[in-house]
From TrEMBL:
It comes from Streptomyces tanashiensis. The lineage of its organism: Bacteria, Bacillati, Actinomycetota, Actinomycetes, Kitasatosporales. This is MFS transporter. InterPro entries: MFS, MFS_dom, MFS_trans_sf, Tet-R_TetA/multi-R_MdtG-like. Pfam families: MFS_1. The keyword Acyltransferase does not apply. Residues 1-25 are annotated as: Disordered. It is found in: Cell membrane.
Amino acid sequence: MALSSPGTGSDTGAPGTAVPGSPAAPRPTRGLLTLLLAGNSAMYALYIGVPGMLLALQIEDIDPADKVANFGLVSGISAIFATVFNPVAGALSDRSGRRNPWILAGGLLALPVMLLLGSVHTILLVTIAWCLGQAVMNIYQAAITSVVPDRVPLAARGKASAAVGLGLPIGSTIGALVGAAFSDHYRTGYLVFGAIVAATAVLFTACAREERMAPKAPLPVKEQIAAFGSALKDHDFRWAFIGRALLVLGYFAVAGFQLYILKDHTDLPAGLSPEEAVAILMPVNSVAMVVSTVLGGWLSDRFDRRKLFVGASAVLAAAALLIPAVSTSWPAMLAFSVVNGLGFGCYMAVDTALVTMVLPKAEDAARDMGVLNVANAGPQIVAPFVASLVVSLSGGYTALFLVAAVLSVLGALAVRPIRSVR
């Protein structure tokens, strides 16, 4: 899984291609925003429920003694695979001039791949199967992410981005609940997640009208690397990139190990299993995230202060990480979930707005927002390795919370040098 900024596709087309929002552009399908919400919710349900619950249980079942190291290895390798495969899948759908066939193919293939993942019994085969899972899901993700710039007029991009963004908390809640429901039968749980994605892909492609676009020529790798370096030469954009990377690294270093934290660090009440605890924490976190996303975006607009809200929300995320570091109680984890959701939700909403204000060139906005997505995806690759190393060396999770808190504070400080935005 890679967090991405919705609606960052190019608004300019090849010759003969209708620009979304222009008079020649096709009118969006009625109900497209609802379909986007459903499609992204299904995707995030699998992304959260599989690695956050079922995969962790399966790896623990195979090798309980080395579960932390193995989970970090599997998560890290699959994240590398996903990060490389996502732009490849996006380029393939660009060249075809179609999105729906790729959404349908990725969604339908999720079902047999999840069946395969649930049937393997070694760490090596789990790694291979989950990499295949990342491949088919990134075919799906790359195509559905491109629907907003392809089919939504500019005037409706805000609502479309909100529909896409709400897929994360809604999908996270579904993923946690389904994962907990099938924690004792994770092979069946894999099939349920595959079926959810497959059914949603069929629904989306059946209901969302699509007109073939002019195929786009692929951008050579050399030009992509040059574009990446060019964007990071800009002072303000570079600091925004660094801040995002640091905070995402701290967030996912902890989020990826949530089940093991509940098993090995938290004193749960009698009768509450770690799987049930995840099913409680995730909706709580999601509600807090939705509230702070809406409120933080509105307040930052009202007061025209982006840096203040970005920095404050990053510090709030750091404060949240200190709660379970000083207390192993269940109420502490509940408090952490609420405060962490408030901090991270506000950060992602306002920081995305901030980044759009420090883009080096308006004509390269889509390209540079793609560069920003490296700050989302890259830390997710590194996070499992960092987390497993910290836990292994320290012998527990307290040090992991402290390291993640330091990273969040550094992320808050990184916005201070930005000059062009208040």
